[in-house]
Amino acid sequence: MRIKLGVPMTLSDISNACNGKLPSNSSKVIKYITTDSREAEEGDLFIALRGERFNGEEYVDSVKEKGGFVLSANAKIADVAVSNTSAALLDLAHNYNKNLPYLLYNIGITGSVGKTTTKEFLKVFLSTGYNTHANEGNMNNEIGLPLSVLRAPKETEICIMEMGMNHLGEISRLSKCLRPDIGIITNIGTSHIGNLGSRENIAKAKLEISDGMSGGRIIIPADEPLLSRIKNKAVFSLNKKGDDFYLLSPSDYIVEIYHSGKLFCRSEFAFSEIHLKKCLLAAASSAILCDISPSLLKRGISSISKNNIRQRLITVNNRHFYADYYNASPESITSAIQAIRNINPEGRKSLLLGDVMELGNKSEELHLEIGRNIPRELFYNLFLFGKDSEYIFEGAREAGFPVRRIYRNPDTSRPDITADQIINNTIPGETILMKASRGIKLERILELIKPKS
Fold first, then answer.
1. pLDDT confidence tier of residue 453, bands split at 50, 70 and 90
2. Which band of pLDDT confidence, cut at 50, 70 and 90, is reported for residue 307?
3. Residue 377 CB partners (closer than 8 Å, separation 6+)
4. Quick one: average pLDDT of 135-148?
């Protein structure tokens, strides 16, 4: 990825920020940083990252041929030499953020489900009164987050960063990079349970958000006992008076947000779904801790629309695909199903599910649970894509979903089979919810359904 620095830096500034070494003190100004040698242009700084499947050091020469500069672990060829390029990227982002002249708050957000939606809501709220910067899309890992920080403009007052993880230690490193003043943990689910082994270990990983915090508050849901021992916490809940922050709904599309037992603001909200109201409250709680006024928060809540949530409705071949295939867990599938209920309420709906990955030895059990929980009254067809989705079939069959309307394809190398199943068994105007782990690449199916030009 190639990004434009929010504030240009000299090679000397960059070297000092990540404890690097320069062959000579350089005043060369860097405006763009890239981690992909193919995108490098003259004057860019290429960071030669090394991962399990790639080694950026192998492409240093090609960058130099283009007139670029290199941050590398190879002191003989580096313009900035470091011992570890991944750690250097995190250090660089940390020092860049620390030196933003108008910065008031850093906010970190993690959780098994809802962190992207919470981030998008919070960005809307805080942008009503502050210059706000946030990471985009899935830029929430040890490469994406620091690159997102480095894009923050000089005028940034609040920096909001979503934090993702697959293993213990990752959120700790992200937290030490950002140094949040406020942390949000949306929930503890079963995402990545295959890597971490238990919900207790997932909670431990999410709690690493505190590792980079010095004081501040961590906002947590009241209904998660695995988080109850956190110090300096602020607790949020729906319809439960007495917590630090709580939300009441006099009607489906009216929300009342309370802080310390007092009504803070009352507003219309575009959604009635419970999981979106939880995201709303988590975001509003953080905004209140940033001293937003009731009138600005009300304006932000009223302005939220479907454009502020990650899921997208895409019309292809006269079918409406609700595409939410960045990531998946049993909890996020339930949330997506709730979200689609109010879309095209009178029209026919079907469900396309692919494998949920990183569930380890719990994969069979959790896929069966997903199948058993599919609401038969909501979906006409069920399309399954992937080897483990066979367990979804078993669960759905046990729960009474009509087998004649379940279409299976265990071969993820053949998305064309599923594309044909959808084309041949859905009708124009039908809405199809798409949900699977990112590694399944459900977008391939959409591409095959598009009419040939």
1. low
2. low
3. none
4. 91
Classify 332 as helix, strand or coil.
Answer: helix
- What count of Cα atoms within 13 Å lies in the side-chain half-sphere of residue 385? 29
Token pair belonging to 187: 């929930």
Residues 433-450, mean pLDDT to the nearest whole number? 91
Q: How many residues does the chain have?
A: 453
Cα distance between residue 435 and residue 332, in whole Å: 9
In the chain, what percentage of residues exceed pLDDT 90? 72
Other CB atoms within a 10 A radius of the CB of residue 165 amount to: 24
For the chain, the average pLDDT equals 92
Distances (CA, A) of 26 to 21, 22, 32, 425: 11, 7, 16, 64
Angstrom distance (rounded) from CA 89 to CA 296: 36
Beta-carbon count within 10 A of 210 CB: 21
Mapped onto helix, strand or coil, the DSSP state of residue 208 is helix
pTM over 0.85: no
Tokens at 413, concatenated: 């190398």
Question: Which tokens is 242 given?
Answer: 């007495």
241, 260 contact by CB (below 8 A): no
What CA–CA distance (Å, rounded) separates 100 from 221?
31
